[in-house]
Design a protein that fits this description.
FAD/NAD(P)-binding domain; four-stranded antiparallel sheet; binds flavin-adenine dinucleotide; alpha+beta; disordered N terminus; disordered C terminus
Amino acid sequence: MSRSTLSRSEVRAKSTLRQIGAGIEVPPNSTRILRRWNMLEAVKSYSIEPEKLLLRSYRDGSIMSNQSLVPSMEDTYGAPWLLIHRANFQKVLAQEAEKLGVRFRMGFPVTKIDYSSLSIASSSTDTAIQVDAILGADGLHSMCRSEVQANCDSVLVTNDIAYRITIKADDMRKHHRLSELLAIPVINAWLGPNAHVVSYTLKETGLYNFVFICRVQLDGIGEMHEFFKGWDPRLCMLLDIAGKTRKWDLYTSNEMETWIHPKSAFALLGDACHPMHPYLLVASSKNLQNGGLDR
Ligand SMILES: Cc1cc2nc3c(=O)[nH]c(=O)nc-3n(C[C@H](O)[C@H](O)[C@H](O)COP(=O)(O)OP(=O)(O)OC[C@H]3O[C@@H](n4cnc5c(N)ncnc54)[C@H](O)[C@@H]3O)c2cc1C
């Protein structure tokens, strides 16, 4: 097989494992695997197990549906639903990997992969590493994807945009109406026209996690205020005390023919091969091209 060269103007490779992102929901399909790997208790020690999923009206936050998650997740799916800060999740996974003998090499932006000799190289460090197998887990803008399936158009841009906010729970406790949201561990989801908001508490961090999702490009908290005017007044109060927001364009994907290189010990993993929305959609490339997804 010929030597394969990967090039990209922006190659991202972290130089250290550090605090990143906000919260992540870890549903039973993932926690079941963690249990099988004897890692569930470690992950649980940093997690909150939400008792309920509350679907709320966007207008006043009144509860439209109250779905019990404990013990129904364990009873139905054989594993719990957890909420955790991404940094803590990454810490537990990294510690377990190190225990199993994995050595992390940070700050090594891979620019070249040789599938026949199984070596990876970085032009920035001018070194190559010989490996037994390669897992291409290089995320949404994967360089590895096209090495497995040429001309792959699996990643689809959607019109949906997520605005993530974390707020100190102590700041929320100063307001009676906001402290209600902290009373019991639940997932709150406000549903409105062409938009929704999800929130939950994060253990250990003293933070409350929010994701506002809509189809409009909003520039900062001021424009979010304007867009979500008329929603539950508590959301407007939360925006008032939120310092800043981070914006994420959301992507989804068409199914790839394969995630495994036909002639090499090389496979794709994670967003490199199957980026997904963090909620259900009826998606097809046709309605994406026509400017949106059906919810
Ligand atoms: C708003 C939002 C909310 C979400 N909520 C949830 C949720 O609640 N639950 C859930 O399960 N999922 C959720 N997701 C999806 C989840 O975040 C992703 O599926 C997950 O982070 C993908 O992980 P990954 O390791 O495949 O890719 P990434 O997290 O993108 O990691 C890829 C890594 O590869 C590195 N890299 C890239 N190129 C190179 C290179 N050439 N050399 C070396 N390193 C490289 C990058 O630096 C990065 O560290 C959410 C996503 C969004 C946007």
